[in-house]
Amino acid sequence: FREDGFLVLEHFFSLEECDSMRSSIQRILDGMEVPPHCRTEFSTKEEEQLQSQGSSDYFLTSGDKVRFFFEKGVLDERGNFLIAKEKSVSKIGHALHAHDPVFKQITHSSKVQELGRKLGLERPVVVQSMYIFKQPGIGGEVTPHQDATFLHTEPLGKVLGFWIALEDAMEENGCLWFIPGSHTSGITRRMVRAAQGASTCVEFVGSEPAYDDSKFIPVPISKGGLIVIHGEVVHKSEMNSSGFSRHVYTFHVMEAKGTKWSKENWLQPTPELPFPPLYT
């Protein structure tokens, strides 16, 4: 992990645990009612991020709630679904770990806590969680990025992602790709809250460098596997053009000891939901 910036742990969760998360998200989908004006398409392309998430309070205030974000091209100009709504969702976030008992149990499970201790985390807190669908045929690409661009701490190096495959994640259906060792040279871009009165809620400061495609390696993982992701390692995933989805539950923790969470981050703790300690 210290050398590469990521760590692959196959069979970390049981198939039953994976299925319980999938059942839980199905219940949440069954009850999904999204007002048309809140229907936000999720994108990782900078311009599109600023237009969709960036202009949407629905995104900016989702840190302590369970909210729905959609793939590109699934809504008409009036915000009506062009395909079955449950097949149109890109992700659900950002506080499943706080509001759903199944995701809460998984996030704070004894094996996750034990792994946190093995990684040297002293006072980790959970900052956000997401369920990502990577829908068959339309699951969008996630462009090369570092998580610390969006979840900035002082000092850097205090954020970790836990990425759990709830189905086999292969090259065909959009597994993660990493540049090993790319977590050691800081970040060049940040997404920050825009000043009051700006046309978007967030803006980017700095720019993402052009990454050498040949340096990325695919990291397939089977159902139940966990990938631990350093906040500054460069990673991406390709579009899912296969006929199979690639469901994932992922959450981020921050080492709170001696760390300052940036007030400029889009995601902020709230009085209703301060970042909960990982260790219970």
Automatic annotation (TrEMBL):
Cofactor: Fe cation
SUPFAM superfamilies named in the record: Clavaminate synthase-like (SSF51197)
GO molecular function: metal ion binding
Keywords: Iron, Metal-binding
Similarity annotation: Belongs to the PhyH family. PHYHD1 subfamily.
Function comment: 2-oxoglutarate(2OG)-dependent dioxygenase that catalyzes the conversion of 2-oxoglutarate to succinate and CO(2) in an iron-dependent manner. However, does not couple 2OG turnover to the hydroxylation of acyl-coenzyme A derivatives, implying that it is not directly involved in phytanoyl coenzyme-A metabolism. Does not show detectable activity towards fatty acid CoA thioesters.
Name of the protein: Phytanoyl-CoA dioxygenase domain-containing protein 1
Originating organism: Phasianus colchicus (Common pheasant)
Taxonomic lineage from the root: Eukaryota, Metazoa, Chordata, Craniata, Vertebrata
